Hints:
39% of the residues lie in helices and 15% in strands.
Amino acid sequence: xxxxxxxxxxxxxxxxxxxGTLFHLVIPLFDNLGWKIGMVENMxxxxxxxxxxxxxxxxxxxxxxxxxxxxxxxxxxxxxxxxQLATYLNSDEKTDIGILTNGIEYWIVDNLQNGLENKVIYxxxxxxxxxxxxxxxxxFRFPLNRFxxxxxxxxxxxxxxxxxxxxxxxxxxxxxxxxLIDWDxxxxxxxxxxxxxxxxxxxxxxxxxxxxxxxxxxxxxxxxFHQVFEFDxxxxxxxxxxxxGVDINTNxxxxxxxxxxxxxxxxxxxxxxKESMEHILLNS
Length: 284
């Protein structure tokens, strides 16, 4: 499995369609978990839900099942995608667990959790995959013998992380240029009128991601940017800004947003020595 993950993580190009993501990035990973493309009884492609829409794959074995919905590799997963998968899960009385992925980022979704913001119970990136992530993935191995223990495994991992009993460090040594975040292309992101808050949100998310990846103390971030972030320590490692356990406030004037991004750019340059980050934060 490690070699498959390494091949995906170090690829210089990724498919630009959902079908490409599915067959070039997702299926090779699950093949390593024992799910073979010819297992028509166990891997149901384009499975029709009660919504009359089709989920990409329904995996099933031993009266257990989970759904997988794939997006383009160049699409950042968001709450609209999560809502789509939750709708599919709602329409399947026997399936509560789903996976939302763009082939690089993976969100494990538990539809029994109340509130859309709480349904992502675990997430990881192929680019920074750790031994902890691999252990969680093993619960999806065919024929799902340990699947009912998935929730407990995730609770244990997150509890150990919170108590600093374990470290889940990346197992691949990936050069920075191979990171999913393509800083040069992101700097070209267009920000038409009315999308200012969305663009601001995306830039702050990328800023947080890079800081977290480099091990910058979140408390330090809070002290410097308390007007932007609302930290919820009880949910750290639990949701994605959710992963970072923060809410990002976008209710600022354009001038305030500009000043905050300038401050972040200065902070990034100081702590990361990353001028490309500065360029991205200050240009739309």
